[in-house]
Amino acid sequence: MRNISLFLFICIFVLTGCQSNNKKEANAIEFKNVNQSIAKSFSDLKTLDTFKIELTGRKPEEMVLTFTIKKADGQEIYNTKIKGTELLGSTDPNVDLSKEKDQIIFLKTIADDFFSDDNFLEPAVMPEDKADNYVPDKALYEELKKSGLNGFKYRLGKENNLYIAWSEKEQKVKIYYNCC
């Protein structure tokens, strides 16, 4: 009788352990890395540059959003890495992100929406626009008004969006607007 009880106990223990490992594996599979790219006119109105993001990591404190832009010839002109904790730390305090699963979903939503049409600004600056206190480089702002090059904006937090564009004069991507 003891052998049967011991046998049943071991079987239940093994089965329970397998089920909990399967659940862990299912959760790990559920949160796949995000890897997206899109081609848009940016550094030159006649060619398409490649915008790419990759969200990697399994836990919010390990997650990193890597954003790159490459010219049509393959030259990388922009590369930034944003930690998941940075994105979480500057969110709306009314959003409940106390659970790790909600944090991961939130970060994946940011990644999934990164290349929404609203973030591509064509042109970056309209000819009639006037620079305000959120313009860190007035000369670049005026250059963009004349060149008609496109811009891109992305979010760093609840009240922090970076607007970037290609400076033909300096041959690099620069922030032309930093605001809410």
Describe this entry's structure for a reader:
Helix content is 33%, strand content 31%. The chain has 180 residues and is an alpha+beta fold. The strands form two sheets. The protein has a four-stranded antiparallel sheet with strand order 1-2-3-4. A four-stranded antiparallel sheet has the order 5-6-7-8. A hairpin with an 8-residue loop joins strand 1 and strand 2 (49-56).
Features:
180 residues, alpha+beta, 4-stranded antiparallel beta sheet, 8 strands, 33% helix, disordered N terminus
Radius of gyration (Å): 23 Å
Mean pLDDT: 85
Instruction: Give the CA-CA distance, first to last residue.
Output: 72 Å
Structural category: alpha+beta
Estimate the helix proportion, in percent.
25-40%
Summed up, the helix count is 4
The portion of residues forming beta strands comes to: 25-35%
Describe the strand arrangement of the main beta sheet, using strand numbers.
Answer: 1-2-3-4
The dominant shape is: globular
How many E strands? 8
Task: Identify low-pLDDT runs.
Answer: 1-29
Order of helices and strands: HEEEEHHEHEEE
| Largest β sheet strand count, sense and barrel closure | 4 strands, antiparallel
